[in-house]
Amino acid sequence: MEKSGLNLKATELRLGLPGSESPERGSDKNGNAAVILSLKSFVGSGAKRVFCDATDADAKWVFSVSEAAAGRLFSPRGGGSSNNNNNNHGKVHVGAQVVGWPPIRSYRKNTMSSQSSKNDDDSEAKLGLGCLYVKVSMDGAPYLRKVDLKMYSSYIDLSSALEKMFSCFTIGQCSSHNVPSRDGLSESRLMDLLHGSEYVLTYEDKDGDWMLVGDVPWEMFTDSCRRLRIMKSSDAIGLAPRAMEKCKNRN
Amino acid sequence: MSYSSLPEDVLEHVFSFVQSDKDRNVISLVCKSWYEIERWCRRRIFVGNCYAVSPRMAIRRFPEVRSVELKGKPHFADFNLVPEGWGGYVYPWIRAMAGGYPWLEELKLKRMVVTDESLELIAKSLKNFKVLVLSSCEGFSTHGLAAIAADCKNLKELDLWESDVEDPSGNWLSKFPDTCTSLVSLNIACLGSEVSFSALERLVVRCPNLRTLRLNRAVPLEKLAHLLRQAPQLVELGTGTYSADLRPDIFSNLAGAFSGCKELKSLSGFWDVVPAYLPAVYSVCSGLTTLNLSYATIQSPDLIKLVSQCPKLQCLWVLDYIEDSGLEALAATCKDLRELRVFPSEPFGDEPNVSLTEQGLVLVSEGCPKLESVLYFCRRMSNDALVTIAKNRPSMIRFRLCIIDPQTPDYLTLEPLDVGFGAIVQHCKDLRRLSLSGLLTDRVFEYIGTYAKKLEMLSVAFAGESDLGLHHVLSGCDSLRKLEIMDCPFGDKALLANAAKLETMRSLWMSSCSVSFEACKLLGQKMPRLNVEVIDESGPPDSRPELPVKKLYIYRTVTGRRIDMPGFVWNVGEDSALRLS
Description:
By secondary structure, chain A is an alpha+beta fold. Chain A has 12 helices and 5 strands.
């Protein structure tokens, strides 16, 4: 991708998990960072988000974890390997999930994963379908995405996957296409980013409350998260105290 | 007397006995006047791909339609292969029909994006609206349902089959006015949150023609008996959650209520099922023709007890907890069985968790002479078993086998399963739908191309060795309408060589194959009546032309490129060069 004279790093989407710092961030004048940093973090001590580390090369497009990390790399016809002609090359290992296989509908996956098997003691291990799709929306983005929370084992994983997924909105790449009734959106998005406003990741829990992601242990989060929303940190300031309160009440 | 001198209304009367689309299409080709007469009296249309024709064209040709059925996203969208925002919006159709079909009575949608706005428009504009079926749809909430409930005075059927409904707490069921007594069918099984039970009960009580009621999980078992007693005429019932504390009074109340339902033929639901409560339904088992236990996590012994009491069963959907032993009991008892679907309880585990093998399916194929439709998830298969099944059931129409690990060979011989599937297509001459799995070479496609002459839909994954495989299918399967392929080494040659074939089909999906962007462009340029759409979420596909296209969806259309493509879908037509520069 051509450099257009913008400082790409400065305009890259960052997800501000509570307590974590933005590496190599330029000047963030709004004080938003201060708000985020002042929250207690349960996410591992001082773990920096690893957006740069997680991509293969900074400027290259990366696609969602489910494709890159999982089955595609082991796919039988993958990039140049000539396994196809050898019938005995052994099975494709799909221990990591391949998107679209086995062909089970999301409705079924979600329903099964939320049923408890009353006949089993170690229900967690035997719940089987191990899949939990939640919708992810981003303020201003024209469409939703869906992620499977069980594909990730930590907030860092989730955060970097989401950054990749929504990165095409940051530099208005998608504006080159006929996206009806979205003209001007990418431009204002760009302006937002140029002014350094950060995004934060929030989620709606089982009770319908909106909380900042990162407040509770990962497993508790995946149990109670019903949907995700990437919102402007300026909108999210009001969430912080509530989230802390709720946590206290829980514990 | 020649046929052309028959008066119009006589011809129209004759045509009214012809229901099938295919036959009606043939009639319309006889001559101009028959075309005219036919188009004015066609009452239902089915559009298998909502982008194949524009709503305006459909309405212009068939002005007096009362029932419309539309399908949107490709089938693989069910398995998360189609990103959100791809399309399939129904709003343009509803806007057109609000003006063009003011007397529309039925709308059936599958895999479409339906907004609250669309539902509100239906409620406001279609005064005689009676039937709404939303199958695997999304994009709407209970607000939209409230509009339908409140304003569709003659509503007979509301079916939300496995749709994704936003559920802000809202008491939409109570929006059905007291004057609404016309409901025949209500399916809210997919709704996540509670509905007002009292509103539900009042609705059930005042609709004496209610035959189908599928409850959602939030309806507790303790309340089911009460509901059943208000609607003993039910023919189809979906329970809510099927678990409660073990109490004899609850049980006897439930059993009593079920025994009062003399018309019950279909049961579903059974979430969170507690086995001790299963016997409550025994009294209706002898009349059951359809049983959907595909969310019921009960083990084989309980399943056997249940199924053994259903001699009239025609359709069974069940989890693989049924195991081979359960399928043996099924084969012994249910001689009327037409359709069997066995879903996996733990598809992502590495090891099998149940004793369900190819044997179960073989036994059913032996014991059930009317078996014609199979969906079977398992972990091992053999050519022998498939050959046996094929010879047992030459009348098979739909055969979908999913061996969970990709490229699993015949477990006895370690050979590919080409011969087994070859037997299926060779013996089952009326086979219309086939899904392949396991280790497969190009040979299986040669069999399919040679024998599967009635095949309409084929699903393939992790199979084949070269373009020859795809070529066999495209050149040999005369009746092919839908082809969907993932992770196969099929590339440009077969696709380009069979370009003309694609216009005779509804659609072709290929993902993670070896088709180049150049080939897509060529196809798009060569075939103006196809939309060749490349789906790529990471950027314009021509920026990395050396890589194969990730996802490709090709479909025939008479309306050209669609105008609602999101940023990650590229239509690679003649002016694609201009668009992408």
